[in-house]
Specification:
- The chain has 395 residues and is mainly alpha-helical.
- The chain has one domain: Alpha/alpha barrel (Glycosyltransferase), CATH 1.50.10.10.
- Helices cover 50% and strands 7% of the residues.
- Strand 8 (358-361) and strand 9 (366-370) form a beta hairpin.
- The protein is globular, with a radius of gyration of 19 Å.
């Protein structure tokens, strides 16, 4: 369902605030130091998805869903500085994406967009790299093999057709832009149709009446009928996992860009308002929005970074006369101010990433209060968006 847009409960929390360009440029300079350290550590290889004791180990492009974020960080660094070294490393990584998708190495899941949009789609958009374009199209073709006609959604995990894995997750709203893009560059509208069908199914099931979101939703394999919402990384089935809510902000905006669906715009406003209503004192959420200050739970800085990106995209669609526009602008400024003031790695010399105090999966006790590659990526994207509002999407 497309929920009604909840009101902002305490608009005074989003009063005008300064975020001078000098502060953003300072944050960029600090980020570049850590990106350079990452290149020194990893060469043309990749950081692991999450840090241990705030240090990323090195890995090859053979598993997981986070490698595209590191390549995307390099592309942002290149665009923001013009320094060829970032482009050279990013392009040197393209053959590993080709090998991974051609040989089907660690791709038995739906995260082709996270892997190939900030890496290979970006390489094609910025440099016209044909190998990267071909790899991204192959990834889109592979993603379509997970599309389920019964239910009209992309199956997230597990063996295709396994009744226990017959579900989608809200994260996939960031994977389907790869299909929209592929439809544009190939002219094959079946990619677009599958992506848009998935979007409609996902928002029709994962979004609750109050504009909070389920992480995952199960379907009947025989009929395609929706069965139940659940969580995998949130606190409870009926709570709002912070990163899932952030995917529910940014994902619909990306569909809006491609489809101009007014429901996508309404949904982004609804999920944004819910998210903003549950921010704690420093405007950076705990790992589940059911927690607040004093609960003793860890933060998830990555959720704030993702939300900033989505809300900044939403702001582009709004008239200055819309009273909510100022709230959204100030919300992004307040979240970014907090990330810069309290979550950067500048005082942790050994840290080779950008953003502290992220949580991968609290219920699994996985990388809690660490760095993760998506948090670092979306922080860098948010910084880029604020420094250059005309930035062209990789998604």
């Amino acid at each position: 369902m497309i929920p009604n847009i909840p009101k902002i409960e305490h608009p005074e929390r989003f009063a005008d605030v300064d975020l001078p360009r000098e502060k953003l440029e300072y944050a960029l300079a600090e980020a570049l130091k850590k990106i350079d350290l990452g290149i020194e550590n990893h060469g043309i290889l990749f950081p692991k998805e999450a840090s241990e004791n705030n240090v990323y180990g090195t890995t090859e492009n053979v598993s997981g869903w986070g490698n595209g974020f590191w390549t995307g960080i390099l592309w942002h660094a290149y665009e923001l500085t013009g320094n060829e070294k970032y482009k050279e490393v990013a392009l040197a990584q393209v053959p590993s994406y080709t090998k991974r998708i051609k040989e089907k190495i660690g791709v038995n899941h739906h995260d082709m967009g996270f892997l190939f949009s900030p890496s290979c789609v970006a390489a094609y958009k910025l440099c016209g790299n044909e190998e990267a374009k071909a790899a991204a199209i192959m990834a889109a073709e592979h993603l379509c093999t997970r599309y389920q006609e019964k239910g009209q959604f992309i199956q997230a995990w597990g063996k295709v057709g396994d009744p226990n894995s017959y579900r989608l997750i809200i994260d996939c709203l960031l994977n389907i832009p790869l299909l929209y893009w592929t439809a544009e560059v190939t002219g094959d509208k079946s990619f677009d149709e599958k992506a848009y069908n998935h979007f409609k199914t996902a928002v029709g099931t994962c979004c609750r009446e109050d504009a909070s979101t389920f992480h995952t939703y199960y379907f009947d394999m025989e009929t395609g009928a929706p069965l139940r919402g659940a969580t995998h990384q949130g606190a409870r089935d009926d709570s709002a996992w912070a990163r899932g809510q952030a995917w529910g902000i940014y994902g619909p905006m990306l569909t809006y860009i491609y489809k101009k669906d007014p429901d996508a715009l309404k949904l982004t406003k609804a999920t944004s308002n819910y998210f903003l209503n549950y921010l704690p004192a420093d405007y950076v959420p705990y790992w589940d929005l059911s927690f607040t200050d004093g609960d003793g739970e860890p933060k998830d800085s990555s959720s704030a970074a993702i939300a900033i990106c989505g809300i900044l995209e939403l702001i582009k669609t709004m008239d200055d006369s819309d009273p909510d526009k100022k709230i959204y602008v100030n919300a992004c400024k307040r979240m970014m101010n907090s990330l810069i003031d309290g979550y950067l790695t500048k005082d942790v010399p050994e840290a080779n990433g950008l953003l502290l105090h992220a949580t991968y999966a609290r219920p699994l006790n996985l990388a809690v209060d660490e760095m993760n590659t998506w948090g670092c990526y979306f922080y860098m994207e948010a910084l880029h968006r604020m420094l250059n509002p005309e930035w062209k999407l990789y998604w």
